[in-house]
Each structure stands twice: as C-alpha cells, then as structure tokens.
Amino acid sequence: MNDQQVAPVHPDNVMKALAVRGLRGAQVSVADLAPIDHLDPRSFVGVAEATRMLGPMLGAVHDGELDFDDDSTRYLIERHEANMLWAIKLEARILEMRDLFAAAGGVRHLILKGSAIAHLDEDDPAMRSTSDVDVLVAGDDLDRAVGALSADGATRQFPQRRPGWDRTFAKSVTMTGTDAIEIDLHRMLCDGVFGVRLPLEELFAESTTFELGGEPVGALSRPHRFLHAAWHAVLGSRHPKLLNLRDLARYMDSPALAPDAIAPIARHWGGEAVLVTAIREVHDALPFESPAWADWAHQTTPTIPQREFDLVERHRNEGSSFGRAKIDMWRELPSLRLKSAYAWGAVVGRLRRSSDAPAGSE
Known about the structure:
Blueprint: H1 11-19, H2 41-50, H3 54-62, H4 70-103, E1 109-112, H5 114-120, E2 133-137, H6 142-151, E3 155-156, H7 165-168, E4 172-176, E5 182-186, H8 193-196, H9 200-205, E6 208-212, E7 215-219, H10 222-235, H11 242-252, H12 259-268, H13 272-285, H14 291-300, H15 306-318, H16 324-332, H17 336-352
Parallel strand pairs: 2-5
Antiparallel strand pairs: 1-2, 3-4, 4-5, 6-7
Helix pairs in contact: 2-4, 3-4, 4-6, 10-11, 10-12, 10-13, 11-13, 13-14, 15-16
C-alpha cells in the first residue's frame, strides 16, 4: 500500500495558527500542522516578524510546538529581542511625550493599540510588538499637541488644510521625531461617517490606565479597546493585518466581552454594521470560532439597514481618497456651519496638495 501524501503547510497557515494560539476558540494548534519541515526556519522567522507573530512563535518553540534547531532558535530570539528593544524605545517616547504635553499646558490623551494592548490585554507584554505610537488626543487639545511635538523637533508630512481643520475634521496628524519614531495623533478612532458618530468625550470619561516606568498612562477602557480593534480591522484597511485580527479574536474569546456587554456600545456608536463585518472577518480569516459572536452577527444582520453596510463598503473601497465616502461623512456632520467649513477646507486642501496626497489622513 502506498503511503498517503500530505501536502506541505503554507507559512500563512502557521501564522494564523500562531495568531489564535492559546484561545478557547482556536480550531487548530501549531502542533497539529504537518509537515512544516520544508520551511526554512530563518525565512519562517522573517514571515513572523513581518506579521508581528514573533512573540507567539517564540512561545510555540519554547513549548515544543515548533521544532527549531539551536541556530534557528537563537536567530528567533535575536529578532524578538530587537523588536522588544524597539518597543521599549517607543514606551520611553510615550513618557517623553507626556512631559512635553504637560509643559505645553496639558493635553488630554490616551494611548491606543500597541503598548496599551501589550500591557492591558496580553498575559505577557512581550507577546505584542508595535511599530509606532498611536495616541488619541482631545480635539480641543490637538493644536497644542502638534505644537509641543513640533517644538521638540518633530515634523509633519502634510500641512494643515486650513486653520482649525486638525481639531475639527482631521482623523489624525502624523508627526515624525528626530529619532525617526512616528507619533500618530488621532482626533478620532477612524475616518468618515463612523468617526463622526463616535462619542469622543465618553472615550475619555470611561478610560483606564496602565503603568510605564512606574508612571500611570491613560488608555481606552477594555470594551472600547475591543471596539477600536473592530473599527480598525474593518475601516483601517480592505485587508486587515494578521496582528489586528489577532487582537480582535482575543477580545472575542473573553467571556467578559460577550455580545450583551459590547453590542449595545456598538449600537450607541452607530456602528453595528462595522462590528458585524469585523466578526465575519475574524471567522473567515482565522482558524477560530466564537459561537456567541457568530450567533449575534447572524441574528443582528437582518435588523441593520442595508444602507449601513453600504457605508462600510464605500469606506473600505475608497480608503483615504476623496470620493463618495467623504460625501457620506459630510452628510453626517451635525450643522450647516460644519458642513460648509468641511466642504471649503476639502476644496482648498486639494488645491494646495499634490494629487497623490491622502485626503483623509490629516
């Protein structure tokens, strides 16, 4: 009898298994995948670094789920240490930024993603790497935040469209420091219609803290971190990054973040269609199941007007370009004064910028 041939496992499938490693809803473990001996370990580590799965990969090697030789293990540890050193540098920059904001008269801000998730949602912060600093800044304080970083030598890629545009309409302003660290100053969690709908003051009112260098640092509450992960996965890109899907799956796997706790907030934010789409993305992309969230999405979808899903799709299709999704946002603005200011700023900004400048990035 001939031995049955087993198709080699693709590296992407191993990365997906690493992404759900340790979750109750994981449908496959790294140890279940075979054969993977055709994968070059160093190249394999490169894929993990590109997808930010070095932490889970190191855990899998440590627990014997992945069989690496000594040289490959040393290389994995070297790359993970390099990423963690960068994370420490980012955290030092967060503390420096706090001091700059305080010296400028105070800037209300909360750390988003990266360090906040690492310290508040991971069993070990070393499981979560990051590339830059994302911070939510109260709209009234955004000009002061930009000024404080500019005075410290940071620069912005694009000028403000017109006076007052940043604090009123911008999704974010990206500042690059002299140390090459990018700080994304977010006025909203997302662009477009669903950004306009967000009750931003509630994000600050219900915030929490984590500790860096013995200092308390503000962050979104855990339910709000869950929803931000969903908004970022769906509205941040047509093709969500594996790291973002991993964040979302980890929230979905938590009994404390069941649909009855989270869905009412999504409804309050005017984003049930966003959350349904995010739940589908996770279940479609990862070997992971959350029956409670799958049932909620199935039962809720018929109650959501099709127009809401159309808004989501237009936003994802157009991204930051100036198209119908921006008109959707304009219609959502609550006053004629704001609508006029947005329309005028958009026209002037497009005339001032080069044709390839992202329309919604700042």
